[in-house]
Amino acid sequence: MEKLQVIGARKLRGNIKISGSKNSSLPILAATLLSNKKIEISNLPKVRDIKTMLLLLSSLGAKIKQNSQYNSITIENSKNIKTFASYNLVKTMRAGILVLGPLLARFGEAKVSLPGGCAIGARPVDIHLKALSKLGVKYKIIQGYVHAKAPRGLIGNKIRFSKISVGATENLVIAACLAKGETTLYNCAIEPEIKDLINFLKKMGCNIKFSGKRIIKIKGTQNLQNVKYKIMFDRIEAGTYMIASFLTGGNLKICNVNPKIINTEIKILKKIGAKIKIKQNEINVSGKNEIKNIKLKTSPYPGFPTDLQAQLMVLLCKSNGQSVINEKIFENRFMHASELNRMGAKIKVFGNKAIIQGNIIFKPAELMATDLRASVSLVLAALTAKGKSIINRIYHLDRGYENIEKKLRNVGANIKRIS
Question: Domain 3-19+233-418 carries which CATH code?
Fold first, then answer.
């Protein structure tokens, strides 16, 4: 099994180009099932979750041509698409459930495995299923599979989500595109990745608009068309490397980004003490100042993202006092804290609250990744530790970070993959 070896205590300096967004690519790939037209998608990140989603689409009958040189694909879906999504492909990523909406919308039936992914807390699909039932879907869960049918096809309705859910919002927006009549979704997630999905669907010919901050209206259509679309940048990858620059006292230019989309993250890092200069498509982050302590909670966009919580925790271990993080999205997302404590951190976890003592010096250690964002937090900590650290189970890391060793080596890190 592959591991990462990191020899730390080096400042990162140089340019890092941010890849396309994993969290944007996955729902957009699922949404291609709505159409039998030619679809070209570019700026896909080369990460494991994308490979898994492409395998899933292929297993359903999609014809996919890849151009790895340009991180792009061409998809053509015939009328003979299958409606069975196997556990073997869905088990490693929660985004597999996103094929449920388009399959039901186009074919009126689907059998989809309950999803897997990171073990960071409950990610129930009941919000997806209850909302789909209001579009006319009948479903049962049998031996780990959702068996769903829409006997009269999907029919538009007014639906209020019981809580803000990115996945449920994506699934319902996609499904409603082919539903008869109009669907209005209330209490929607409004993450940039959802807006990217909506922009893609609109280019495909779907009729979607925001009619309030968290209200989305969709008028069903059958008139879809060929489309070419470029995926947005990965804002979590951008935030990770911004933190890495500040953490190591380095100076990184983060390229291929839209700074407006990550305004919250920029404000937080400035508040903590990072020096940040912003240009149209790039952000320069230097970390020569002291790191200030802070109290912070994760929350749905435009709040601070849960996917950057672990990385920020590493930074706060080096702050000049006690910091507090309240995790408001998932109930089991502090598993990295125990591994950081093995490196010398002083973190105490009380339910969804973590208290982080600052002014610590990370020590090298052999470490175990537990999920995607936890794994990268261990890489960040190892970058500051004087000596050799080994990070195990990096298949988590490969799910969401493209060429992380190469990108870090190019800016001065001593990091390599070993068996």
Answer: 3.65.10.10
